[in-house]
């Protein structure tokens, strides 16, 4: 035996004769269910098989057709089931009332077989078209979501690949990237209630910020080895060259923007971070000497994250500081090197910074 794949029509009428006539008329074409009252209709509409169409008598004892229709439309499971009223009422106001409640059509009594069949077929074809569109839209939304996820993954892999390229010439480690990503994200979340940092209320912005953070020192690939890898203190001339990495990094990202010929959000944020994360709150930083709120939010957050991680990390030219010592250095730079509110957020979530540092220690 094969399953009955025909459309299901639920007929609701307290007149058994009407039920019999409609059942005999529709059964050759559809799977037919029958109910003699409003409550029975509601039970069957929520059962299996779910009706594709309901032919509903208006004048019934207890729950009349209007009340049943209202219940059907209130229930998410039956909200979209088309309903055609069966009625002996001829007043246009009655028809208007039913349509306002959500009825799809009216068939007046006495019933004419040809009209009943035509109206039923029309409603079922319309429902089939709506269902197809719903399924099609769901499939398209799923495909869009899949492609967006794939695009996001591609962007993340590209960023990490570029960051790892910079690592091959930089004494800093890949775990520095992981740690600074964690610090920046934590700061952004901690500043969401601060009106000066309203941009961080956007989950999308926080994701872009976190995703772009690894490119903050991409410009170091352009710094000569004898300067980048020098174990001792840089000379004044060497320091001038070292400082060019900020602009060189943003220039490289900007060139990538031109190459793709389309604006990409993560590249815009990455360019901000690369170019300005060495700016200082009092205007004494580089490369442009920006001060205060003229420094983009992304760069202000990265400034604290980058310096904190440098302080607690081993370098060829220095030993690491403890978390407490690094905390004191950051606090001492409040209002001079760093945005005061970002420092306050750092202090508030210092334990989280310590956890991130411990979780991504160098060599692990």
Automatic annotation (TrEMBL):
Domain HD-GYP: 151-362
Residue ranges occupied by any Response regulatory domain in the UniProt entry: 8-124
Sorted UniProt keywords: Hydrolase, Phosphoprotein
Stretches of the chain forming a coiled coil according to its record: none
Pfam families the record matches: HD_5, Response_reg
GO BP, sorted A to Z: phosphorelay signal transduction system
Gene3D superfamilies (alphabetical): 3.40.50.2300, Hypothetical protein af1432
PROSITE patterns reported for this sequence: HD_GYP (PS51832), RESPONSE_REGULATORY (PS50110)
4-aspartylphosphate found at: 57
Family annotation (InterPro entries): CheY-like_superfamily (IPR011006), Cyclic_di-GMP/3'3'-cGAMP_PDE (IPR052020), HD/PDEase_dom (IPR003607), HD_GYP_dom (IPR037522), Sig_transdc_resp-reg_receiver (IPR001789)
GO MF annotation: an example: phosphoric diester hydrolase activity
Name of the molecule in the record: Response regulator receiver modulated metal dependent phosphohydrolase
Native species: Leptothrix cholodnii (strain ATCC 51168 / LMG 8142 / SP-6)
